[in-house]
Amino acid sequence: MLRIIKENDMVHANTESFEDVLIRHGRWLEREAPRVLQLNLGKMCNLACVHCHVGAGPTRTEIMTRETMERILDWVEENPMPVAELTGGAPEMFPYFRELVDRLTRRGIQVMDRCNLTILLQPGYEDMAEFLKKHRVEIVASMPCYSAENVNAQRGNGVFDGSIEALRMLNRLGYGVEEGLPLHLVYNPNGAFLPPDQRELEAAYKRELKAHFGVRFHSLFCLANLPVSRFASYLKRRGKYEEYLQLLKDNFNPGSVDGLMCRNTISVDWMGRVYDCDFNQQMEMHTGFEGDPQFLWEVDLRRWKQTEIRTGPHCFGCTAGQGSSCGGALT
Length: 331
Known about the structure:
By secondary structure, the chain is an alpha/beta fold. It has eleven helices and ten strands. The chain has a single domain, classed as Alpha-Beta Barrel (TIM Barrel), CATH 3.20.20.
């Protein structure tokens, strides 16, 4: 059993820490052999969504360098993993995105693109959808609702119409229609509440998007909003930060622990530094020692399973209700 680091400076004085709650329920976090290499290619994005835990946007300049990409690919050559998840920002805005996808897929790695859909319509990206199809890239696309009002409130005016146009284009290419071209949508609540039942919401999404727009997709992933970065600021401005944290803690689901992404994922930021998950990455809770970050090319997978998983109050977001991970609900 692994010891869990408790972030004492981040825990509200009047509540149990995530570590305390795990112990009370007789649960613990233990690493499995990693199967997902999650690469955050930078914070550049053509959108600035309210719920974005990365704080990405058009004015952000953080982006991975070619040197860092090469060092990551050298490590992957020696440590092949089944899945590479490319995220951002808008990962497609990474200058070497196409080269990275090509070199990963030639190694037999399944590539997953965390796509905001609207980037596929931007000048210079008009053929990106065809490129993704050519490499059989799995697309996981943000679509926080099937109504224009809710989507535009979270992501900006006009984003819903652009997303529908992009989804139709992907459908014409076979995405969401053919089994070999997976297209999944991601739901995030548009406020300080938990996602509804994933199966019921997926059925509603499929019914509404097909009936009104002719859009098809394979699966819906329901993700809780975690109280970090831009969403944490949103909560604090409205005086709801502590209330939302308590909501997450009150809905702790011990059955979600086994499926948490931190158990089988290595998350890497745009500088090559390693984290347990994308949320720890935004909290700068790296896996290094004595305050120094650890870089991917320093990771020895034989020792990885013995390293400690770092936790904080935001971890309650992944274990509340149905549970929440990059692949949606956990229970």
